[in-house]
Design a protein that fits this description.
The protein has 2 helices and 3 strands; from the N terminus they run H-E-H-E-E. The mean pLDDT is 86. With 73 residues, the chain is α+β, with helices and mostly antiparallel strands. A hairpin with a 2-residue loop joins strand 2 and strand 3. Strands 1-3-2 form a 3-stranded antiparallel sheet, covered by helices on one side.
Length: 73
């Protein structure tokens, strides 16, 4: 590993709380995160058929996002 790559890997990726600004805004989006399992994949497959729902598969997790509200029926 080169010294430039080693120096770059030692940099701090976290920000101080004083450098973070929070906005008090209302979002029309909602979502849930589930552990990846047979049941979660079935739920994600079903929810993915609904309009305005986005299903994201990540390592060991499934994220379901929607606009307005999500109804699991």
């Amino acid at each position: 590993m080169s010294t430039a790559a080693r120096d770059a890997s030692q940099s701090n990726i976290f920000r101080s709380m004083k450098d973070i600004t929070f906005e008090q805004t209302i979002s029309h989006q909602c979502g849930v995160t589930m552990n990846d399992s047979v049941e979660a994949r079935a739920i994600a497959e079903f929810m993915g058929l609904k309009p305005n729902v986005i299903v994201s598969y990540q390592p060991a997790m499934i994220r379901i996002d929607g606009s307005g509200k999500l109804i699991f029926k």
